[in-house]
UniProtKB/TrEMBL annotation:
The keyword Phosphoprotein does not apply. Residues 8-175 form the Fe-S hydro-lyase tartrate dehydratase beta-type catalytic domain. Keywords: Lyase. Signal peptide: none annotated. It comes from the Bacteria. It comes from Lachnospira intestinalis. Gene3D superfamilies: Fe-S hydro-lyase, tartrate dehydratase beta-type, catalytic domain. The keyword Magnesium does not apply. InterPro entries: Fe-S_hydro-lyase_TtdB-typ_cat (IPR004647), Fe-S_hydroAse_TtdB_cat_sf (IPR036660). This is Fe-S-containing hydro-lyase. Pfam families: Fumerase_C. Belongs to the class-I fumarase family.
Length: 182
């Protein structure tokens, strides 16, 4: 099924998403990778305020290449999501509603997705140049000392993703493996 949603996410949009759905996201999303997640996790441990509000937010696990002249961002492909698995349950418990990456997630992340009625999307690895065309603006908003791993606010239009783990915990990767292992 093909669906169009707006970020920040609404609970009603998330509830209607099912593993395997093709989704186009329009609105505001944020980038954060390993180093940014580690620093946010440490900030939470210090009882300090995070640089972005987690409530209803979507985080894209991506570190872009430099932008070419006239473009807001360079190639913008997803990175492996499992590297954020140590930090994701805490962020989900703080209101994070969507994550975009590639690859499988741990059971702890799946449990946190279900507990918090969130969703995990996959973007197509290797298609960073094409994905960047859906990014209308990019602004570093925190951790600029991390260079490409800084947290960025992106404005996206019809950003293409696939629901991998829905809010009920259905995992597309597991479904596909079972289908073909019969």
């Amino acid at each position: 099924m093909e669906k169009h949603i707006t970020a920040p996410l609404k609970e009603s949009d998330i509830k209607d998403l099912k593993a395997g759905d093709y989704v186009y996201i329009t609105g505001t999303i944020y980038t954060a990778r390993d180093a940014a997640h580690k620093r946010m996790y440490e900030t939470i441990g210090e009882h300090k305020e995070l640089p972005i509000k987690m409530q209803d937010t979507v985080i894209y696990y991506m570190g872009p290449s430099p932008a070419r002249q006239g473009r807001p961002i360079g190639s913008a492909g997803p990175t492996t999501a499992s590297r954020m698995d140590k930090y994701a349950p805490t962020l989900l418990d703080l209101g994070l509603k969507g994550m975009i990456g590639k690859g499988k997630r741990s059971q702890a992340v799946k449990d946190a997705i279900v507990r918090n009625k969130a969703v995990y999307f996959a973007a197509i690895g290797g298609a960073g140049a094409l994905l960047s065309q859906r990014i209308k603006s990019s602004e570093v908003i925190a951790y600029d000392d991390f260079g490409t791993e800084a947290i960025r606010r992106l404005e996206v239009e019809d950003f293409p993703v696939i629901v991998v783990i829905d809010s009920e915990g259905t995992d597309l990767y597991e479904q596909a493996a079972k289908k073909y292992c019969k």
